[in-house]
Amino acid sequence: MKHPKALLAALTALISLALAGPNAQAEDGYDLWLRYEQASEDLRPDYRKQISAIAILGDSPTIAAARQEMATGLAGILDKTVTVGTSVPRGNTLVAGTYDALSDLDLDRADVGPEGYAITQMRRDGRILTIIAADSDIGVLYGTFGLLQHMLQGEPIAGIDLVSRPATQHRLLNHWDNLDRYVERGYAGQSLWDWHKLPDYRDPRYTDYARANAAIGVNGTSLTNVNANAEVLTPQYLEKAAPLADVFRPYGIKVYLTARFSAPIEIGGLDTADPSNEEVQAWWEAKAEEIYNYIPDFGGFLVKANSEGQPGPQDYDRNHADGANMLADAVAPHGGIVMWRAFVYAADETQDRAKQAWEEFVPFDGQFRDNVLIQVKNGPIDFQPREPFSPLFAGVEDTKLMMEFQITKEYLGFATHLAYLGTMWEETLDAPAQRTEEGETLTVTDMMVSGNDAYTVSGMAGVANIGTDRNWSGSIFDQANWYAFGRLAWDPALDAETVAREWAAMTFTPDRAFLDPVVAMMMGSREAVVDYMTPLGLHHLMDTGHHYGPGPWVDDLDRPDWNPAYYHKADEDGIGFDRSSSGSDAVSQYAGFLREEWDDPETTPDELLLWFHHLSWDYEMRSGRTLWEEIVHHYQRGVDEVEAMRETWDGMAPYVDAERHAQIADFLAIQEKEARWWRNACLAYFMEVSGRDLPDGYEAPPHDVDHYKSLYFPSAPGNG
Amino acid sequence: MKHPKALLAALTALISLALAGPNAQAEDGYDLWLRYEQASEDLRPDYRKQISAIAILGDSPTIAAARQEMATGLAGILDKTVTVGTSVPRGNTLVAGTYDALSDLDLDRADVGPEGYAITQMRRDGRILTIIAADSDIGVLYGTFGLLQHMLQGEPIAGIDLVSRPATQHRLLNHWDNLDRYVERGYAGQSLWDWHKLPDYRDPRYTDYARANAAIGVNGTSLTNVNANAEVLTPQYLEKAAPLADVFRPYGIKVYLTARFSAPIEIGGLDTADPSNEEVQAWWEAKAEEIYNYIPDFGGFLVKANSEGQPGPQDYDRNHADGANMLADAVAPHGGIVMWRAFVYAADETQDRAKQAWEEFVPFDGQFRDNVLIQVKNGPIDFQPREPFSPLFAGVEDTKLMMEFQITKEYLGFATHLAYLGTMWEETLDAPAQRTEEGETLTVTDMMVSGNDAYTVSGMAGVANIGTDRNWSGSIFDQANWYAFGRLAWDPALDAETVAREWAAMTFTPDRAFLDPVVAMMMGSREAVVDYMTPLGLHHLMDTGHHYGPGPWVDDLDRPDWNPAYYHKADEDGIGFDRSSSGSDAVSQYAGFLREEWDDPETTPDELLLWFHHLSWDYEMRSGRTLWEEIVHHYQRGVDEVEAMRETWDGMAPYVDAERHAQIADFLAIQEKEARWWRNACLAYFMEVSGRDLPDGYEAPPHDVDHYKSLYFPSAPGNG
């Protein structure tokens, strides 16, 4: 070695490396809203002062879960080990339990109902007691999550005094998961349910799934696809479903299964599934009995019948009530319910598809059993970025309805587009739907909840966006939609902005410098998608099968109502689906005050204009623009909005860990690219059809329509 | 509140809760052998003393990767931040770089070859320098991993002096991943390759995949299923493959693609794929050119042709050499290779399938281009728990061969059975295959490596067991097989026990109290599987299609050689496939000394007995048992062995985190259940066929054969 110093000198230029701690686990989104980061310096000392010990009274598995959650949560939030004494705790104590367990405290009982809870503080003997009280163990668990979330959202707990109880009874996720773990319309990996390893292996993730759901009040999960496989009702699969129910039970979550209507034939050896056949009825009764032997608190059946090729009672000239009631009778002795989907459209029907659910169900109003809920998609077509609410919500008087929202973004950009759906669901839930004789306006929520004997028989279902992806939902912001679904099912009166704020605070940080711009971005995000995909009441413009990307030109599918061209009806004169009284008259399915408003383009709000009306490209809009100009304006606005979202997010780097920030930034870049693609493809097509040029100031699509038509996507996920 | 003290006293009985740190991430197996836990108290002070600064010289992306890895690794192992100075470091320094970069040190150059490295220590001016030197940047990266692994295995570094270089040139994973992310014979979730989000989203997991592979010397990856889809060769997918190659490049890993032989028809618009057709040749040349425009260092093609329905040159009356050479010519100008699989069996062939690969390839010995490697499965049938080595390894003189092992456990218990395959591969690699005229015995490794112009044209492929499961491989112990494949591809002379020990030390702990029993358990695990599935040379007894569980009774499939009954040929008189000179004479494909040994049941080793011979149930074994008794003995021994493995693992709880310990314990319980199932189903069937009872002391199968036949598994994963 001649010049050791020369070598060592060469080291001078070495870049300095940031040495990460070896086990500094990346922030990969797995923890959802159970990310128990320590509270800010502002709050932590006060939290610590007010809670120096925990006591959760009781000994059920649910109470044990509450105890574990509170211990884990507070250890994180307070950043210290909280004493759980074996002797009388000194100091300020958090006490949780049922009112019965807490009877010594002589509390005023709040009206918390079977699942709700109250959180209060009191002073006793110089100590502060923070009290979570409920009528039931599950209420105690919900209250445990409630208090932890309050703290995660950066709220002080001194003097806390709140009561929370769910407005709906059945708050369900619907997993469209096949038994081979393929998830229809799933953009987050495979099904969580590892049927092959069940019943022997209980993946710890099942417990985390239950925790995350209990934290937002979800109390039921339908495990399997509504396009059902009868196999799941065989002993082989019931044996596998049972341990899932066991894992979920302490968290208040019931298991439901999808019932294939033809199961008596496929796995029962019968030659019919006719609901009026006594053998068929007996088969379902015995099957229900068998299921309840495996799962004593089985929730019931979810059924898609006579829809998109699924078998159903109409195959035997029976009606939906005949079918639903047969299943309802089978589960009724065990306390089960049947959720019968209203998403039906007849195979041989050529009239406006938007009208069909109403026409198939309203005639049977009053004929369904008490334990049947008709599960109605929010809009009359199929989870489009914007639809008016389904008229069925105001169409029946003696039929119990439950809402079906789609959490997974089949039509709103899959996993990569940031689209917060709280606003969309709020729009539906708050929509005026009916007027009483006294002139009081009732919303969709009123029709669904109060209109249906209130708490005891109401419900809300969300088609899950959950899979094996590490972050559960395919993207971090898609977690917000799972969260919002749970919160709105618990309380449909919550406003979407509050929910967004709660979620963002717990998922990232309660720092207002982060929350204000990010919540604003979330609040505008769904409207951006509407703008760049289907503005002004347009709908069903997506490409066929996978539903990824634009396909407004598609007009050659077997059924008329599978074609985008059927829905937009664009030609050289105009665009839009005439559902007014001079068209399909779908508008007549709504209450009088809405019928009047929506029958006339002049009074129809812009966002539903082309849903209800076919108008000339030159139709003059409120804005002063022509319809054509307005369409172009919206498509452009959608793209601009995504650009703005990217800018907002770029500025959030100081508040977010590098890993999640980068993934979200990458996904926003994809969203911008795809927003442009939607804009360009749709505008290129409408330019061709209308023979019109773009207004001044708008950039021309870089390709002609044939280019956009030529694109194909064999790897698009989630195809049915 | 009447009795506050009474309430508080009630708290006395509360159980004490262990409060986990909130962000104590569970040990979920994601970190593989890159789990940089701090060294033991015995070693850490000395490591710290010897390395107080790091200098990795150079500025390529590969050197940057080495620098990042070393920084991350040492921060963990030393549990301190290691100085990477911008001025001359004081103290003992780790210096890494190419010999050229380290020329000031005047090192003796070791013969490390293009990918190897040397690690030494020297003293200079009172300082200790630990030196990693190589001829290439990738050698520096391999040496970085080498030193880190040395420490993770609990070895002292004082006086370290080692040289390591790979014995084979091409060390590839073969992913049998479809473009829809379904993995054929995959038991670890979906394909890692998220084709839908590529090229825009580069999942950070791609980088971790590259790190894990570089750490064990894997330098190539074939991304797509050998049952190939021509789509992957279209620009749409090449654009998506390119960023994967970009991510892998700094880690020395080249991307390969599977070429569907009929691609010129399917995506090229030609009406033939005849390799003698000039248009077809030109199409492949242009396609190669196009691929290299996307991926300048593209590795080449992997091809399954004229096998199990795949198209190939025989469709045009051409032979394997014609097909392989055409593709080889297309990639040769760019430095690419073609790996042409020898797993072929003719659709209309009725003779012994074990003989076919030999018969299809030996006639073309010497006719393949220099850049063609014939990729040969370890055995002549199909990755069974035990097969003799493929005779092709000793059947050609002027043809380059590479080994194909199956890492994914298609036939060895999917993800839940613990079966360490290092022993199986060692058995093949070390098997005597040929004798020279001088009487020297050559092993399979000798035939494959030395026999083929040594380093420059040899290779080993492993069918990957990797998917989106958090632990990559479906189970923790399946990670050992990925690890062992890489290590044996780097150095086929390594013994399986050493490799198991390395892996277990890095994956769990280098504590001998753990390593000794666990490595012993691993070493015996594959033989246990052989015993409870296919002892004594039996093979192909699994059920059809999914290959999950036993199906020895299956005899009704279209092709004779798809039926288990074809392979065991059991009847009331005896069992086994006569491949001796009086039978199919497959034995004649082996070298003389093996032919002699294996042609006579008296000299054939027990473990291959029924592979080569059909024998009476009463045939007397070396053990003194009859063949029937010996079969029963082995089936029982397999089950007993799994019971013992469970006991061993139960005792390891003190050394392993709770999460991984529990999953492994759960999987071992499944393995025991399924080992019994295999034993009982096979014995019940052979009892029925042979008309024999079990020997005394063996428990009868609890069900008759019809029960086992009735089982079916619609959710079994990985079906082709």
Automatic annotation (TrEMBL), chains A, B:
EC number from the UniProt entry:
3.2.1.131
In the UniProt record, the signal sequence range is 1-26
Please give the Gene Ontology molecular function terms for this protein: alpha-glucuronidase activity; xylan alpha-1,2-glucuronosidase activity
Whether Plastid counts among this entry's keywords is no
Q: Which GO terms describe its biological process?
A: xylan catabolic process
What does the subunit section of this Swiss-Prot or TrEMBL entry state? Homodimer.
Keywords from UniProt, A to Z, are: Carbohydrate metabolism, Glycosidase, Hydrolase, Polysaccharide degradation, Signal, Xylan degradation
Q: What class does this enzyme belong to in the EC scheme?
A: hydrolase
Ranges of residues in domain Glycosyl hydrolase family 67 C-terminal: 474-698
**What would be the name of the gene that encodes this protein?**
aguA
Instruction: Quote the catalytic residue positions.
Output: 308, 382, 410
- InterPro entries assigned to the protein according to its UniProt record, in alphabetical order: A-glucoronidase_C_sf (IPR037054), GH (IPR017853), Glyco_hydro_67_aGlcAse (IPR011395), Glyco_hydro_67_aGlcAse_N (IPR005154), Glyco_hydro_67_C (IPR011099), Glyco_hydro_67_cat (IPR011100), Hex-like_dom2 (IPR029018)
Instruction: List residues of the Glycosyl hydrolase family 67 catalytic domain.
Output: 152-472
Q: Where is the Alpha glucuronidase N-terminal domain?
A: 32-146
In which family does this protein belong, per the annotation?
Belongs to the glycosyl hydrolase 67 family.
Q: What top-level branch of life does the organism fall under? A: Bacteria
Q: What name does this protein carry?
A: Xylan alpha-1,2-glucuronidase
Q: Provide the reaction this enzyme catalyses.
A: Hydrolysis of (1->2)-alpha-D-(4-O-methyl)glucuronosyl links in the main chain of hardwood xylans
The scientific name of the source species is Aquisalinus flavus
A GO-annotated cellular component: extracellular region
